[in-house]
Design brief:
Length: 80
């Protein structure tokens, strides 16, 4: 019934997987252990959080775009 299941997985991954695995751990590390703002660890964690946040937004936009482009080919209960 869901011929676009892979595209839906991409959207869910962009909103769920990336933040939970790449962004939140480094943010929580900085909040919990409070490294000095001058330390390399603090700035490396901030850099990782910013880069993967941008990648998450790009991935979400790309996944939604892929659904929109493939929408004309979808048929409910199609015999693929």
């Amino acid at each position: 019934m869901l011929p676009f299941f892979g595209d839906i997985n991409a959207v869910i991954g962009a909103f769920g997987f990336r933040p939970l695995d790449f962004i939140l751990p480094v943010v929580f590390f900085n909040l919990t252990f409070k490294p000095s703002k001058r330390s390399l660890v603090f700035w490396l964690n901030v850099t990782i959080a910013v880069v993967f946040s941008a990648l998450g937004v790009i991935a979400a936009v790309a996944a939604v775009r892929r659904i929109a482009l493939d929408a004309k080919n979808y048929r409910l209960f199609a015999n693929v």
